[in-house]
From TrEMBL:
Gene source species: Kribbella antiqua
Keywords of the record: Transferase
Superkingdom of source: Bacteria
One GO molecular-function entry: transferase activity
Name of the protein this chain belongs to: Aminoglycoside phosphotransferase
Length: 269
């Protein structure tokens, strides 16, 4: 089974180290500030003396994120340009623009995701990735109510059996409008690839569906898929995504649990 990243033993880069390591790649740094994000990562925004802005990100899944960005860019998806990638940190160029929920941007992102899903791969772990958070539900004691745990143990294993042999492709795994950057109505970047993995393409669609029906409709229009008949599959994948997120947040020492528990409760109602 895939192991959970051991966030507690990970030595994350501090501000002084970030400045020095970035300077070796992009030149002298004029300003550095830490950016809030997932508890398991540490990210810094760095403005070089040249006026350009870069990001240094450290965490447990950096190498996989860097590789996913390279593969995505090779498929024509505007992932961040990776300038350097070491064992525990990467440095990337800033993506122009800001997060966008514009329909045209979302539709273009759907087209991009379809191209991403043309990258097939199989690390042999899709069924394990889905089963592991169910098997480890005991670790969420005090976070997920006991009655909800019992319902998850009943509802999820039969579903996992039905999708365990799905054709697996490269997934972003955390795609939503906040990760879509645009200038005007032009998509300029898809960011935050730290959860990338190989799996069922419907898992990505389920994650994006959490942005609401209107956003999903625009996304599916670009993706080229009619969502009719997928409701239950997307619902079950939303539960599994939320369960994975709870495990990751707990392992990283975070406390952002309520929204994920609410999603699971809603989907099982």
């Amino acid at each position: 089974m895939p192991a959970q990243p051991v966030f507690s033993r990970l030595k994350r880069v501090n501000e002084t180290e970030a400045t020095a390591r970035a300077a070796a790649v992009v030149g002298p740094i004029a300003q550095v500030e830490q950016v809030q994000g997932f508890a398991g990562n540490r990210t810094f925004r760095l403005r070089a003396l040249s006026g350009e802005t870069f990001y240094l990100k450290s965490g447990a899944t950096i190498q996989a994120e860097a590789r996913a960005c390279e593969l995505a860019r090779s498929a024509g998806v505007p992932a961040p340009e990776i300038l350097a990638a070491e064992t525990t940190y990467l440095i990337c160029a800033e993506v122009p623009g800001s997060p966008s929920s514009d329909d045209a941007v979302i539709t273009e992102a759907g087209r991009g995701l379809r191209r991403l899903h043309g990258i097939r791969g199989d690390d042999g772990r899709w069924a394990d990735r889905l089963s592991t958070p169910i098997e480890r539900l005991d670790l969420l004691a005090g976070i997920v109510p006991d009655d909800l745990v019992r319902r998850l143990r009943v509802a999820l294993p039969p579903f996992v059996d039905t999708v365990a042999d799905a054709e697996t492709v490269l997934l972003h795994s955390d795609l939503h409008p906040r990760h879509l950057y645009a200038v005007g109505n032009e998509l300029t970047g898809v960011i935050d690839w730290g959860d990338a993995m190989y799996g069922d393409p419907l898992f990505d669609l389920a994650r994006f569906s959490m942005a609401g029906d209107a956003a999903l409709d625009a996304f599916l229009s670009g993706y080229g898929l009619n969502g009719v008949g997928l409701e239950r599959t997307l619902s079950m994948y939303r539960i599994l995504w939320s369960l994975m997120a709870l495990h990751a947040e707990r392992a990283a020492g975070g406390d952002w649990f309520a929204a994920h528990v609410d999603t699971i409760t809603k989907e099982l109602s």
